[in-house]
């Protein structure tokens, strides 16, 4: 049986994912629709800062997967989801919340900003990367090519809301390097529920002391 500490930590992660899903989807609705996505919102300052970050977190000999993960993890540790943009429709950093400038220069942004920032890092690393979007979700994430294979990655939904999650897992890799079908399933609340149920057991979600919804 899973221990109490692990149960509490896992429930916190699940609740965080659910909140993250609702916030990122709602906040993104105020951004311009991403259909035929035209990337190019980053400033020269963001490019310079991203290059400096790469020089710090990327080390010689890293595989492509390790580089992608290093950037994914760095962004989550250094970025807070822009809840103000969600709750008020306005952001303390203005339109930067929707560009790479938000996460890279200001440490905050909505899903569009996360996606643009991640793409900028990948571009500087020479790793093929695009931004994906879904009109129904009003959400954006990324696709990267690792060793000739395309994967999807959602840094926004791997970042807990609020920040400061349990030490066991302050950020997740649930949405890290997935196939299109895997991402489609886990972008659905039923899919993420099944994921954690299989990982930790049904009692974690429905036990008397750990009810999530």
Topology:
Elements: H1 4-28, H2 44-57, H3 64-78, E1 80-81, H4 83-88, H5 101-106, E2 108-109, H6 111-125, E3 129-134, E4 139-146, E5 149-153, H7 155-158, H8 180-186, H9 189-200, H10 203-206
Parallel strand pairs: 1-2
Antiparallel strand pairs: 3-4, 4-5
Helix pairs in contact: 1-9, 2-6, 3-6
Would you give an account of this structure?
With 213 residues, this protein is mainly α. It has a single domain (4-206), classed as C8orf32 fold. The protein has helices at 4-28, 44-57, 64-78, 83-88, 101-106, 111-125, 155-158, 180-186, 189-200, 203-206, and strands at 80-81, 108-109, 129-134, 139-146, 149-153.
In short:
By secondary structure, this protein is mainly alpha-helical. It is built from ten helices and five strands; from the N terminus they run αααβααβαβββαααα.
Keyword list:
single chain, 213 residues, mainly alpha, C8orf32 fold, three-stranded antiparallel β-sheet, two-stranded parallel ribbon, 11% strand, disordered N terminus, disordered C terminus
Main structural class: mainly alpha
Taken from the alpha-carbon principal axes, the silhouette is globular
Counting DSSP H or I runs of 4 or more residues, the number of helices is 10
CATH fold annotation: C8orf32 fold
Mean pLDDT figure = 75
Q: What share of the residues lie within helices? A: 40-55%
Let me know the largest β-sheet. Answer: 3 strands, antiparallel
Task: Give the number of domains.
Answer: 1
Radius of gyration: 17 Å
> Segments where pLDDT lies below 50 for 5+ residues?
1-15, 22-37, 165-169, 203-213
Instruction: Name the helix and strand elements from N-terminus to C-terminus, one letter apiece.
Output: HHHEHHEHEEEHHHH
N-C termini distance: 22 Å
CATH class: Alpha Beta
The CATH architecture term is: Roll
What's the β-strand tally?
5
